[in-house]
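Troubleshooting entry. Yesterday's outputs looked truncated, so today I'm pasting the complete records for two proteins to confirm everything comes through intact. If either block looks cut off, that's the bug. Protein one:
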Amino acid sequence: MSEPFDRRAFLAALGVAGTGAAATPAVAEAAPVAPAEIGVEPRPEALADPTELTIAEAATLIRRGRLRPDVLLEAYLDRIRAFDGVYQAFNVVRPEALAEARAAARRRPRGPLHGIPLAIKDNYFTAGTPTTANSFLFADFVPPHDATAVARLTAAGAIVLGKTQMGPLATTRATTPDGLITTVNAWAPNRPEIDPGGSSTGTGTAVAARMATSGTGTQTGGSITSPSNAQNLTGLKPTMGRVSLHGIIPLSYTRDHPGPLARDALDAAIMLSAMAGPDPHDPRTQGLPAVPDLITAATPVRRGREIRLRRPTRIGVIPGYTSGDSPTARARAAFLDTLAGIPGATLVDVPLPAEWELLTGALFNNVRLPERSEPFLPQLTGDLRRFGVSVLGWLQGCLLGANEYLIGQRAKVVLLDRVLTDLLSRCDVVVQTGPVPFDIIGLPELALPIGFTPDGLPIGTILGGPPFAEDRLLAVAAAYQAVTEWHHRRPPDPTPTPSPATPPRLTALDVLDTMQ
């Protein structure tokens, strides 16, 4: 489980240390290899439809010889053919994916990701497959290598099914570069005004709509937790540095976090176990605590018929978390009641740190904008129309003064210290009403489903923890999911429609026509 952390080393990893340059620490040990034998008995509905399988369920069937990876992949291709014209979740489906699945069917399983089809957000480099970030700037970019996270997933046996729609350069929900809405919420496919979540929209919709088993996203301001909450998924934003950012098109040097969007806590743990670990190409990943056994942490502890937490855990409840009589407030109250009934869980009221509104508000949040502009300074001297709908954020970043940026970084250190000292010293994990400020200060967050609105839209919540406490978050989520069924619900299928005639780069269905 979670190990003690070095606060100074964590500040250095965030890039916000007060003074001096830290020497590059020695490379930490590699992430643990996921156990090859995960035994999760598939649910009846999953046995009837392979696209309903979780990673853990599919891994069990593949290991037992009851499911072939190519059969699983073809089931997803059938759903993409039928429904992605409605959902618009994919930018491209890789024509090589089916051949890779057939090759995986001829090999012995190497672990729980063997032969598992994944949806990859289109800002992760994928060798030989376009990586556009849904932007005019990268419209013709084909990377020469995989992002480290993608390379680790495929080395673990996963198959990149395709690249998913996203907000242009990861700034909004998925749209075309000039702002036309594309990907819709899988739970409201005929209501484009229903927000499907932040920039990892395509991955969220692909997983929720059963067009991929799991997938990857990035979070700078809620883009893993928000689509997970909006689409009944379990999303995990790890601690800054836990997963390498090498080969991912940047948005913010101190706030970008790669992570999984999955169907439940165990699947999120399987994904993160493969993605995490030190990378010599990303100094933020080095010298950190070793990755713990996340899969064991996300495996519910059973004592007869009773579900227990793996270790005693204080769950902090912030002021106003259940205030009001909205469906969300009622779902949050029921969520806390359920947690309180799990042996090992203790609910504790915790205060918000001093000057919370100031330190987490827009004033200091805007200090991220120069980090957005810096990698693109050469492009900003050219045709600004290439930045599309998000150009104003890049221009704001160029205009923010160095003194304002420095004040903002110091404020971030103050905020981090107060969260660690005044909030997380009183609890082991804390409930949240949104991703702020944990994405600002690099702390881990886990989003999970807790109910539905009267009109059938998912309600989710977020748990936050101290640095490198992903295992604690997974353990709480796994115990909750062992005694509830929200995460097993799937949206009804939409009426199939032809692929839209003109959306830029929506080539998924065209590629599928060649994969016979």
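Protein two, checking that the full record survives here as well:
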Amino acid sequence: MSIVFLTHDQICELTGARTKAGQITVLKQNGIRHTIKMSGWPCVIASSLTNEGANQQKEPATWQPRKAG
């Protein structure tokens, strides 16, 4: 599984902003997970927008009684 990042143009389109500060502000306001690169520009992983990992089957939690002690 490889990590796919949004391009600069895709982040500009997503946020409607072309500046670092503008993009970061919009990402924070909308709760979009992102990191900040060393250059100061935001970096967004594509799967954070599509919830790809959320569809994977998880094992259901099993109930276990407390031990009498």
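Both blocks look complete. Sanity check on protein two: The CA atoms of residues 9 and 20 lie 12 Å apart.
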